[in-house]
Amino acid sequence: MSNRFESKVVVITGAGSGLGRAAALELAKEGAKLSLVDLNEASLAETQNQIKAIAPKAEVLLLTADVSNEEAVKKYVEDSLAKFGRIDGFYNNAGIEGKQAPTADYDSKMFDKVIDINLKGVFYGMKYVLPVMKEQQSGAVVNVASVGGIRGVLNQAAYVASKHAVAGMTKNAAIEYGQYNLSINAIAPGAIMTDMVVGSLKQIGGEDAWEEAGKQFVSVNPKKRFGKPEEVGRLVAFLLSGESEFINGAVIPIDGGQSNQY
Ligand code: NAD
């Protein structure tokens, strides 16, 4: 096992589930000190239990916060700094899907909620982490976009708008902060089997037929399967490790090739 994260501090939002938890486990195995942020306290505690099982010595700080609340974001960054003194990596990952509906039927309050979490949450995260990394003259950020940040996805106006915006904001920050030795990228996962995707399939197929909806969904993927959270975790680890330092402003699909298939 390599230890690319020995003495590195990484902040992960949405660390209580799915992609955030998988990255936390991946980084803990490689020696990272972790500041884990989520709205859901119980699921954060479960992530910590899973980390203890594979990396008993890992230093972990749990922070309950809503990423759509700017003050809460400022605080999770301050608390992370108070505990660890620096931030080497930032996985700006927390997000929600929202309710599926054609654009004209899309509920306006839900639209605001998706934008508040998926877009403003990512913006606030960068707003408070980038000055820390600029001061250090080092650091790497991975924002979470989606294939929905590259192309349209049926019935997901707010999600797709938020994820295209995350991709755009990533490119912008990359050209602003590259000169300070920071690398800022986004990942664009396809369907990776997490609670969010189960929820999405239930919206498509209903409680009884969501597994069948899932089979149909992946039948058009070149790899004929869902992605695994740990596959995304390994990509995130690479992008935060320093090994990929010249990759800056990229939006990297991890989707079995599906985003090429229009
Ligand atoms: P998930 O639902 O399994 O996990 C999301 C986590 O974020 C949960 O623990 C939840 O409590 C937390 N969260 C939600 N709102 C929050 C808030 N306001 N403040 C703090 N934490 C909050 O979902 P996931 O599949 O792991 O998704 C993680 C990210 O990956 C999201 O941004 C999602 O849009 C993106 N993504 C996922 C997929 C996929 O197929 N799973 C594909 C593309 C992009």
Automatic annotation (TrEMBL):
UniProt-listed GO biological process terms: bile acid metabolic process
This enzyme's EC code(s): 1.1.1.47
Domain Ketoreductase: start-end pairs: 8-190
Gene3D superfamilies: NAD(P)-binding Rossmann-like Domain (3.40.50.720)
Pfam families: adh_short_C2
Alphabetic keyword roster: NAD, Oxidoreductase
GO molecular function: glucose 1-dehydrogenase [NAD(P)+] activity
PROSITE patterns: ADH_SHORT
Homology family: Belongs to the short-chain dehydrogenases/reductases (SDR) family.
Name recorded for this polypeptide: Glucose 1-dehydrogenase
Organism, as annotated: Cohnella thailandensis
